[in-house]
Structure of non-specific serine/threonine protein kinase:
Amino acid sequence: MDEETYFPDTDLDFSFTSTTTDRTVPSSSARSSLARSSLTLSFNESRLSCSTTTTTPSNITTLHHRKWDPRWSAIKAATNLSSDRNLHLRHLKLIRHLGTGNLGRVFLCQLRDCNSATFALKVIDRDTLSNKKLSHVQMEAEILSMLDHPFLPTLYAHIQASHYTCLLIDFCPNGDLHSLLRKQPGNRFPLAAVRFFAAEVLVALEYLHALGIVYRDLKPENILLREDGHIMLSDFDLCFKADVVPTFKFQSRKSRKSRQNCFTGGCFGSVADSGEEEEVDPEFVAEPVTAFSRSCVGTHEYLAPELVSGNGHGNGVDWWAFGVFVYELLYGTTPFKGGSKDSTLRNIASSRQVRFLHVTEMEEAGTAEANDLIGKLLVKDPRRRLGCTRGAQDIKRHPFFDGIKWPLIRHYKPPEVVGGVARKRGHVGHVKRRRWLWKGLDYLMTRNRNNKNSNGNYYDYVHNCNNNKPRKHA
Ligand SMILES: Nc1ncnc2c1ncn2[C@@H]1O[C@H](COP(=O)(O)OP(=O)(O)OP(=O)(O)O)[C@@H](O)[C@H]1O
């Protein structure tokens, strides 16, 4: 078997070698499956062993919500055998190249002694990066080390080997949402699927904001799909961090007086007339409302008007991008897209309001609610935009999300959509929209008829993809 340097452009400190003659390494492939790779890659250990430092977040292993995850146990077993109890590159076996991003390359890898524990390893050559990109690397590593959430990546190890920074995170075998969207009829997800993905992204953003992190790069390409079909938000290099002061805010809401209360004498006067009464709920709000940044980063179709105008921005850019995201999942395109990047930006910056496409086959119940939500998120003035002052709570309360039991969302069954299950070799090529640095529900799934299991505690998103009608799950 030939041995060849996998990346001839890398220097001698760190190279990957292939022990097969297979030259058909997919260039970007969270979109292809593990089973299809016959390539064996390995680190050139002899050149790296003396210069590695690792941060296996030991405090995280004890605190992390996934501390019982077999991956952690496998890492623990591997590091127990290590004299310094740290994970090193020699513990890892590279399987194949998954893709290349702005900062570095991402590989599928396994622990040498445990084939069942797979990870994604992001390898960044610091020597090739500008200071600006180095600060992005730092930001990404810092943010990853803070995260402990089912819809966000777990950082298993942060390894510094010579001038390489390696981040070991969860591997998502089902590709990204942008590729999946491109496989759908008309490039649009059924409403129930839009609702599911939007709800999970909302929860992930809520968590980031509670940590004071403004994400700034929401787009379907950055939403990877885990093995179980739930989402994982990726790419944290454009985030910025701000202070967040958690507060209790009082939210008044109208509630229908229950019949029982009326009969037990709790229903008088005006309440009896309207059938409604005003209740005041204390609500926990942790939203970085004072976040402020001037650097204009993001993907042009997703940039908020305040980013385009360059006057500084805060948390609101994520809620704007969330509106664009819901629109794109529903209509297959973004709302302000023009013929060129410049015209897209002009449309965003102008006073032009969002227009909804008329799609004849799209008369699912819930579309009006979805449009209403999008309209409230795509408000050009961030001070009036939904979510900007009270965060995700306000968005969760919107009728589009009626009926979702938020604390149980990670137990919901992901929607069955075209191409949504772990796939065979080959991925849908798509024109990737690079972000750039710039100066300057056929009905709402509220009704329980489609959402039962034995304890009635989760939604069943099983969908008949042919006719987009929900079907009952046995
Ligand atoms: N955890 C993962 N699981 C599976 N594939 C991944 C994972 N992380 C990244 N990838 C794949 O590797 C590719 C490169 O990822 P990376 O995060 O470096 O850059 P990117 O997503 O292209 O973003 P950017 O260049 O904007 O930083 C992605 O396109 C994706 O297909």
Summary: The longest helix spans residues 191-210. Residues 28, 30, 98-104, 106, 120, 122, 169-172, 224, 234-235, 237, 435 surround adenosine-5'-triphosphate (CB under 6 Å).
